[in-house]
Amino acid sequence: MNLPVNNEKIIQIMKTLSLLFGGAVLVSATAAISPSVSAAQTLYKPFPADVMPSLSEKGNYDVGVKTVEAAYPVKVKDIAGNEVERSLTLEIWYPAASSAQKTTYINETRSGQVFEVQADASRDAPIANADTDFPVIVISHGYTGYRTLMFYLGEHLASHGYVVAAIDHTDSTNKDVNFAENPYSGFPSTLLNRSRDQVFTFNSISENTFFKESVDGSKAGIIGYSMGGYGAVSTVGGCYAFNDQTAATFTGTQDPKAVALIKEALNTCAGGKALSEETLPAWKAALALAPWGGQHQLFDVQSLNNIKVPVLYVAGDNDDISGYDGIKWLFDNTGSKESKLLTVKNARHNVAPHPAPKEAYGSEFDLGSYIEPAWEVQKLNAMNEHFALALMNCHVKGLKDDCEYLNVSGSSAQVPVDGKKPEPWKGFDDRWALGLEMQSK
Fold first, then answer.
1. Residue 296 DSSP code
2. Which residues form the signal peptide (predicted)?
3. Which of 294, 295, 244, 306 shows the shortest CA–CA distance to 269?
């Protein structure tokens, strides 16, 4: 992208954009996909239950998983206004009627190193019967990523009675974007399609032959990480508010007429709609993990004020990609009184991905998109499982007792007050919730 060097604000935005790509321009042009995949690896250690939050324990259902190709029913417009066909690959976890041989997930790191991960789900198992239909949860990865980046959440929520669909966002995956030659190639599509893909995915599950008789299309939740969080905030009612400067910067466009058209294309609400009032009523809760966009105030404040869906924001207080102050800006302006901000002390941006596969340990570029400098990633994953289940059980299933797991406040550190140590947060054992802080409206 060519920028006017005399515009300090634009230059600073580009510095932030460079951080978003994790130093992608430094990747060697010789990086290539590994010719073979090593044996499936297990990413999780057998920690005792006492050191993990209680709602991170597996549920009563066995878990099935399907890979589904979902095509938009009609052509859609790309960022340039051309009509194009668009399809998504979905990984869908669900309560299974029985357990068979466990499957694996195959993906690749940002530099193209292919890896295989052992799953706790059975491929294409029959779906479980239940007295009530299963709510739907949609999971949306960041830029870049892949649909199983948060497979632990998909398996976990499915074991507790949800159908969970995670998206490979076309143009925005590790496989689609060649960082060595064109690291920004998928970003305009990401800005345009992230919320649209989330809404389309929910509708696809509700209409899918295998799932439609077992899901409750009136109850749904959305989970988004980074750019997925940018989409999730819009999906539940936030309207984008790109100006000429930000529309040009984040799409690499210089022509004023083209910028005007791009800005018009981007500035939508709730999955490409014109108004936030067109938000699907099925959305009952949103989990926004390190959501991007608030640091540039890319959302219309009034539309944020009008969001009725409870949003749980999760942010590292040292997030140098989405910016902690930007995430807090989103929380402060979100209208739902049941929204909350969970701060992870001494964390940066990687609060959501699964632990790094061994193939990522060959370079900081790959490893840097998985690990946290000061946190055990498995503990972060367990924390996400706990609060995601509490959020969805409380607001999607209406299990009011589980709302109490969200009704914690202040610091989790149990610092003595007047010589007396406070009780631990609900769902955490004594001494095992260190490093968290919850803020409510």
1. G
2. 1-39
3. 306
CATH of span 8-407: 3.40.50.1820
Q: Point out the least confidently predicted range of 25-29, 359-363, 378-382, 413-417.
A: 25-29
Amino acid occupying residue 238: G
376 φ, ψ (degrees, to nearest 5): -80, 120
Confidence bin at 67 (pLDDT 50/70/90) = very high
Reduce the DSSP state of residue 298 to 3 states and report it: coil
**Could you tell me the pTM of the whole model?**
0.92
From CA 231, how far away is CA 239, in angstroms rounded? 10
38 band by pLDDT with thresholds 50, 70 and 90: low
Q: What pLDDT is attached to residue 37?
A: 57
* pLDDT tens digits for range 129-145: 999 999 999 999 999 99
Taking each helix axis as running N to C, give the angle between helix 244-251 and helix 187-207, from 0 to 180 degrees, rounded to the nearest 10: 90
CA atoms of 263 and 197, how far apart (whole Å): 19
DSSP 8-state code for residue 401: G
**Hey, how many other C-beta atoms are within 10 angstroms of the C-beta on 420?**
7
Report the C-alpha gap between 78 and 86 in whole angstroms. Answer: 9
Residues paired with 220 in a beta bridge? 136, 283
Q: How far apart are CA 337 and CA 19, in angstroms?
A: 32
